[in-house]
What we know:
Elements: H1 22-28, E1 42-46, E2 61-65, H2 66-75, H3 77-84, H4 88-103
Antiparallel strand pairs: 1-2
Helix pairs in contact: 2-3
Amino acid sequence: MSTAWMVRPKPLTITRPPIKCPAYLRFIRTLPCCACGSTLRIEAAHIGPRGLGQKVDDKNALPLCFWCHRELHEVGPVEFATKYGVDFPALIAKWNHFYESNLRGTW
């Protein structure tokens, strides 16, 4: 008898709440928009894989002005990154390193 019809259970995945770091978000909001260079109405835009209703870690945020942040949500991260030539992982790594090396614990 074939068991091909049987559904195998998916492995249990353990989820954790996102890492919160308000000081890091304050730091991100001091930077110019990484798409257009504006320094007005900067927001910390969270970038990265997430499920429905889930937020990524605060350390995966980048500075976007209000208008570019809205555009990111409208067109999606791939089209946005292509249009503006933004390398999200490289920028996030750069800002994480700078924050950890220079500012951590000073805010």
